[in-house]
Specification:
Blueprint: H1 3-7, H2 22-31, E1 39-40, H3 57-69, H4 82-93, H5 95-99, E2 103-108, H6 110-125, E3 130-135, H7 139-147, E4 151-156, E5 158-159, E6 164-165, H8 167-174, E7 182-186, H9 199-212, E8 215-220, H10 231-242, E9 246-251, E10 264-269, H11 273-290, H12 297-307, H13 309-336, E11 350-352, H14 357-367, E12 369-370, E13 376-378, H15 387-398
Parallel strand pairs: 1-12, 3-4, 3-7, 7-8, 8-9
Antiparallel strand pairs: 2-10, 5-6, 9-10, 11-13
The chain binds (2S)-2-hydroxybutanedioic acid.
The site of (2S)-2-hydroxybutanedioic acid has 6 residues, from loops.
Length: about 400
Amino acid sequence: MTTDLLTKPGLFATLDDQPLDAMLTLLHRLRSDPREGKIDLGIGVYGDETGQTPVMRAVKQAEAHLYQHQTTKTYVAAEGDAGFIAALAPLVLGDSRARDDRFCGLQTPGGTGALRLAAELIARANPEARVWLGTPTWVNHRGLMQAAGLQVLEHPFFDKATQTLTFDAMMSVLETARGGDVLLLHACCHNPTGAEFTPDQWGLIGDLCARKGLVPLIDIAYQGLGHGMEADATGMRTVLDKVPEAIVAASCSKNFGLYRERIGALWVKAQTAQTALRARGNLILTARTMWSMPPDHGASVVRIILESPALTDLWRAELDEMRARLNSVRAALAAAVPALSTIASQTGMFALLPLERDQVVALREQHGIYMLDSGRINIAGLQSDNLPRFAAALEPYLQGDTHAR
Ligand code: LMR
């Protein structure tokens, strides 16, 4: 290398420093904390009563089958495994929509890949479209939409102090949305709040989207962990039936425990079968320029499970156990900390505690309790042996006099 090359500012020197992602910073802090008895309520990964995230029994059996029968590792297709999409569609969309040719679907690398692909499709179809996010929402939603060049706007969704859904305020802000804008919703088990719409509210959201010409983009990342696979999709399906166009981004990370396999799916509902085919062509082209072909392992595992009635039963039974555990932890926490009674009626993996950042930091530093700075906890990080300790540490912080502790 000649020295005059080094005198010029390099390509990468022009980059700005970036703050570390909050989730990754928290993980790093947790792992380097030497204290015994730390309580990890950070990243959204299911933990059982022993704190483990085991490979699900049906997944293990499907993997054994795959090991014995898979004969090649050659590419599948840019749209992924058609058998996986065909098997998953009835579970996510319901039978009638899965057969409706106005819906087209393809496999994506995780629910995140589905959301990113959705954002690219929206930007390709209408660069002026704006995406409405509820506050708060999953921390990655904003970045995923902006990465495709889309403008993001916000509507109020949840009041952390009172632990209530701000539905009327949300609807009145959404009255200012423009036709063609996109409304990003969580189908169930809202991340980070655990709050959910009533069936009537889902109906009103569907009506609003239809009346104003908004396109719902529905993130269904925790199906099965709230009330069950069917019940968790009911509100979303109400909206899908009311609007001519919609997008669904699904994930198998949580309900199949396949986090690291990056397995998800994207469906677009178009006005006609012909437009759906056009959307599909655009999705495939876009996917080709982002990841070319999605990873296969998780898709094969899910397909093998869903094509086998015995494995499907085994998977559903374990998913039921996971959901029952989450709900029993919610009930136990609500009973132990009366100020958090709303937690028992919320669903899924997350709750957003009414804590300020300094209180979250104090809980971490003084008690080894790790949660996101927003006050979000992963319910599944609590077990019967650490829950009383967590409740006792938390209680004074909910009295409102602990900022200086
Ligand atoms: C979470 O919110 O904790 C999960 O969805 C994991 C992630 O990537 O943020």
